[in-house]
Amino acid sequence: MSAGAPLVVKLGGSTAHAMPDAWWDDLAAHAADRPLILVHGWSKPLRQLRPQYALPSAVLRDRYGNQSRWTTPEVIADIKTVSRTLAGQVGALLDGRGIGHTHVFGSDGLVAAGAGERWWWQGKQLVELDNLVGPITTVTPGAVTPPRPGHCHVVTPLALDPAGREVNTDADRAAAAVAGAFGSPALVLVTDVDHLLIDGRPVARIGAGAAADFRDRGATGGMRKKLRAAGEALDRGVDKVVIGSAPVSELLAERVGTVLTRSGRKEQVSWRHLEFS
Ligand SMILES: Nc1ncnc2c1ncn2[C@@H]1O[C@H](COP(=O)(O)OP(=O)(O)O)[C@@H](O)[C@H]1O
Ligand SMILES: CC(=O)N[C@@H](CCC(=O)OP(=O)(O)O)C(=O)O
């Protein structure tokens, strides 16, 4: 990890429009001193663009049970439309706080994907589909200007597949690949829940092994993908991953949220004790 490595923050599509001014103030204060890459999702803005994206048929599952959007060229075009709008809004919020920005589509050389799966579960049917979704194979930091204090790269996690087609990826896992490739000290996954819950109890800190165990027995939907992404980031040398909904400096200071670390002790979990006023 180099001293100038960027922090990577992934802002969930569930919550990107709902972050309060104080959250942006905090992010801008962080970015004034240190390089920042913000990777965003788009699940909610896409549903707002067209109701069909809220239908169960919009989501497929691969043979491992991982959820994935059914992505056609028309869906890629819609993703690019909502991402341009979102990146413009994020850019304005940062520019207003003295932080410049560049909007980057991962498919413009930053992110490469391998060949996608061909067989997908659509409801209870296994179907062969040319789904434009690929597993991330490479992130090339040299494809963007070097991250620097006072500036934020806003990344839309699309990728190019081996055939040169623009494909969809999972935004959490893309953020993990970006954090690994840039030598980031930390990855922050900002979402619409305050922490990871296990059996209804908020987790303060959990080792990678325990998180992987829980992922396979208890986590669902978006959290399952976040735990997979967190494990991938730690495997790629990121020191810690924090999941939560609070200002980034609070999450990095481990005052709130759930911290995931590489850990020799597989069973390691500590619980967060909530204070109610
Ligand atoms: N064990 C869990 N702890 C916390 N949240 C969970 C858990 N299992 C599933 N979730 C769900 O994961 C969601 C966050 O993932 P997701 O909807 O993909 O958000 P984002 O758009 O921010 O990536 C939460 O809203 C919550 O409903
Ligand atoms: C392949 C696939 O399903 N990609 C996701 C990428 C966006 C994402 O992950 O957005 P959130 O941050 O809102 O979860 C999708 O198209 O919904």
Automatic annotation (TrEMBL):
Its protein name is: acetylglutamate kinase
Instruction: Tell me where on the tree of life, at the top rank, the source sits.
Output: Bacteria
Instruction: Give GO terms for biological process.
Output: L-arginine biosynthetic process
What is this enzyme's catalytic activity, as reactions? N-acetyl-L-glutamate + ATP = N-acetyl-L-glutamyl 5-phosphate + ADP
Q: Which Pfam families match?
A: AA_kinase
Task: Return the InterPro entries for the record.
Answer: AceGlu_kinase-like_sf, AcgluKinase_fam, Asp/Glu/Uridylate_kinase
From the UniProt record, give the pathway where this protein acts.
Amino-acid biosynthesis; L-arginine biosynthesis; N(2)-acetyl-L-ornithine from L-glutamate: step 2/4
Sorted alphabetically, the Gene Ontology cellular component annotations on this record are: cytoplasm
Question: EC number(s) in its UniProt entry?
Answer: 2.7.2.8
- In this protein, which residues make up the domain named Aspartate/glutamate/uridylate kinase? 7-244
Q: Name one GO molecular function term.
A: acetylglutamate kinase activity
Q: State the top-level EC class.
A: transferase
Keywords from UniProt, A to Z, are: Amino-acid biosynthesis, Arginine biosynthesis, ATP-binding, Kinase, Nucleotide-binding, Transferase
Please give the SUPFAM superfamilies that the UniProt record associates with this protein.
Answer: Carbamate kinase-like
